[in-house]
Amino acid sequence: DASYAVEVQRAHPGRLAIVKPLDPDDPATDDVVAEWKKTSGAVGIRIFWTEVGRGADDPGFNRIARAAVRYDLPVNLHCWGNLDGGTALIDRNPDTRFIIDHIGILQPRVPPAPAEPWRDLPKVIELAKRKNAVIKISGACTLSKQPYPYPDIWDPLARVFDAWGIDRCL
């Protein structure tokens, strides 16, 4: 994804980093991840959990989690609006390293901010207890109802930093 490419480019100039979204319905997940691991600059794989009806026990999600362990790649988990499911998936796969995308909170692509942008903050804080997960702090400014310097996001973000520890925040 472009956001990861930019982040890693800053940290490691000259290296392109890529995260591959995977299809949980693909029975060849293991082969796809094995090939992806050979890609120069590949740093992870991704689950977009947007479909209603999939549970943490979904065979496709668990295939992806097992392949991530086998090929030593973290799983970027995009599960905003479904942190309960994301938490259950993380708990079911303790050997898999997960990266919670976009603070785990629904972020609009364009203003305005949601009516209750930090509604899921208690779930994000609870998720910090999982030692096989880190959290990506990106897009937080889209949750602000005020202009730059976004004074209304700093208290909730401080709670995220306190719960997760700065070393587990990307």
Rg on CA atoms, Å: 16 Å
Distance between the termini: 15 Å
**Main sheet characteristics:** 5 strands, parallel
User: Would you report the number of β strands?
Assistant: 5
Assign a percent range to the helix content: 25-40%
Average pLDDT, rounded to a whole number, is 90
Task: Note the overall shape.
Answer: elongated
Compute the number of helices.
6
Which structural class fits the helix and strand makeup? alpha/beta
Low-confidence blocks of residues: none
Structure description:
32% of the residues are buried. With 170 residues, this protein is an alpha/beta fold. Helix 2 runs parallel beside helix 3 (59-70) and helix 5 runs parallel beside helix 6 (154-164). It has helices spanning 2-11, 29-37, 59-70, 83-92, 121-127, 154-164; strands at residues 18-21, 42-48, 75-78, 98-100, 133-135. Strands 1-2-3-4-5 form a 5-stranded parallel β-sheet, sandwiched between helices. The chain contains 6 helices and 5 strands, in the order H-E-H-E-H-E-H-E-H-E-H.
